[in-house]
Amino acid sequence: MARIDEGGAPQGVIDVTPEDFHAVALGLADGQERLHQIRLKLFTALDGNAGAAGAGDGADAFERAYQEAMHTAVAAFFRAYDVLGSVAAGIDQAGLNHWNADNASRPQPGPAPWTPLIPAKAAGSPAWPGLLGPEEWWLPHEIARYVPNADTGRLTNIQMAFEQAGDAVQALAADLKNRMFALVENNDAADVDALNDFWDRLAGGHDSAIFFVLPQFLQKLSTAFADFRVWVVDTRERIEDSVRDVVDGAGLGLAIAGIATIFTDGFFEVLAGAAELLGIDVIGLLAGPVAEISAGAVATLEGAEVIGAVAGGVTAMAMAVERTPEPNIEQADTAKLGDELGDQTARLPEPKYPEKQLQSHFKHAKDFGVDSNWSRAAANEYEQALRRFAEDPANEVNLAGTYRGDPAILIYNQFSRVCEVLRPDGTYWTGWKLNPQQLKNVVERGSL
């Protein structure tokens, strides 16, 4: 890619040419399509395994976590897609700038060697299927709602789809980083260094780099499906054991100890018939023990190991989306990339965070990623989180907004719906995760 400049650079120093910039820009733009195909492949797998979780209280709980996770995943894919295009356009413009500078020094300047790159923007509202399916048709609802009936084969398919998507995004990021380093490894030009620093913000090993966090998030979802599959099998076995004990204790005269699985339509018909002959309410007999086991199992499912882990991943992914800049590079010198990203915050007054105000609104700390009880240390953590949000170039700023009719500065992110409100002098006022109508008012009217 890069070549020795016979006339300019000292021996052994690689001089990056304008064409090198253009080649890397095209590679990054192609990365957009590769990222799009990764998402399409994942969604195809989800479509082919719809309803995998089956029915029941556990399936309902897992479905809720899954839907929130998918909204966040789509937002992350879209932001990653757009930012790749923005960086590609910036690098392409850098190449044209270098070419124009060289061309202007020639006696007879010629036309530009290529048309400026205009990358595509993410668009559309992708849909994905739900995980819920029908209950066991032959079981009464009073019992079926507690008995997991997920299709473990399809759960495995979804698990593998998320794992493969995470691996693919990680491989894509590594490949694109290598393309970037082809420009920067032997060149000290300020513009190239600026782009290298910017790419580190996108894919460096930290929790605000979207191409670092997105593969982790997809892997976390893969693990969640594996854990849910294990939960389904374990819970169903425990319920079957409980039913065996109840049936044996009821004296129904059924020899079920050696039956591998008792949840079949034929077994329940026999059980119901035997109970009817003895005047026993089989539903009432079984519902209590089954419900008790199910309640404990669902509580475990909703804990930190499965659904709780998904929720933590959603928070981390949403924060990475918020903190990922979306530059629109139009400067003559790409070295000004950092200035472009700083334009938004430069217009803000210096944010100030009085402790009394922090304590008054600490109930919203979780919306900014601080999950702890009030203390001096928590107050400092909350202040730093608010300051990062206020200064984050990925967020939008309305300096002429209003809060409850009074002048205010509104800083918000349309992906996460989180909004921070400052007084006109920069003093922290309040902030929380908006509901959809509040966000619409902020975006369209500048009022909250």
TrEMBL record:
<feature type="domain" description="Colicin D C-terminal">
    <location>
        <begin position="357"/>
        <end position="441"/>
    </location>
</feature>
<dbReference type="Pfam" id="PF11429">
    <property type="entry name" value="Colicin_D"/>
</dbReference>
<protein>
    <submittedName>
        <fullName>Colicin D domain-containing protein</fullName>
    </submittedName>
</protein>
<dbReference type="InterPro" id="IPR037178">
    <property type="entry name" value="ColicinD_C_sf"/>
</dbReference>
<dbReference type="InterPro" id="IPR024440">
    <property type="entry name" value="ColicinD_C"/>
</dbReference>
<dbReference type="InterPro" id="IPR038233">
    <property type="entry name" value="Colicin_D/E5_nuclease"/>
</dbReference>
<dbReference type="GO" id="GO:0004540">
    <property type="term" value="F:RNA nuclease activity"/>
</dbReference>
